[in-house]
Amino acid sequence: MLSKKMEKALNKQINAEFYSSYFYLNMALYCESIDLSGFAHWLRLQTQEEHEHAMRLLDFVLSRDGMVELEQIDKPKGGFKGINDVFAQVLEHEKMVTGLINDLYALAVEENDYPTQVELQWFIKEQVEEEKTAKDILQQLKWVGDKDTALFMLDQKMGQRQLASGEEE
Ligand code: FEO
């Protein structure tokens, strides 16, 4: 069974994952508004992934006889200043989430809560991937610079993203 402290911290993370989903959706809408439909597609899939992260944690809490209490989701950040700014914000956001996951893990260690440690190891690995992906895309955008043709091609490539089987596991 989860301690009350751990249960509360996991509930907070569930809310943070739902916020991430909402934030990515806001970025997808921005990309639609500047006619980058490939980037919008990529971000919509990211929205789905974040939703899966929230559900995964939610199911974990339930499986440990914990209570899930859904809280209000904050209005997502907006006011993007171009596609480079979007991915700079993605990277910052994922770094922040990595910090939250690390703090949760530290709490699970402090409490000798081994099942929660094991569950969080999946998230720790996922964060390494998410930060790397954001960094790679940001780098590609820097190479593109102000060349419209290159941006067009990158947008096409982003539009080809599919949810890999197991990506939402
Ligand atoms: Fe659920 Fe992007 O971390």
Describe the fold and architecture.
- The chain has helices at residues 4-33, 37-63, 83-110, 114-144, 148-158.
- With 169 residues, it is mainly alpha-helical.
- Helix 2 runs parallel beside helix 5 (148-158) and helix 3 runs antiparallel to helix 4 (114-144).
- The longest helix is centred in the last third of the chain and has 31 residues, at 114-144.
- It starts with a helix and ends in an 11-residue tail after the last helix.
- Residues 17, 20, 50, 53, 94, 97, 130 line the site of MU-OXO-diiron.
- It holds the Pfam family Ferritin.
- Fe cation binds at residues 17, 50, 53, 94, 127.
- Belongs to the ferritin family. Prokaryotic subfamily.
- Its EC number is 1.16.3.2.
Features:
169 residues, mainly alpha, Ferritin, elongated, binds MU-OXO-diiron, Ferritin-like_diiron
The domain count comes to: 1
Count all strands and give the number. Answer: 0
Uncertain segments: none
Bound molecules: MU-OXO-diiron
How do the strands and helices of this protein lay out in sequence?
Blueprint: H1 4-33, H2 37-63, H3 83-110, H4 114-144, H5 148-158
The structure holds MU-OXO-diiron.
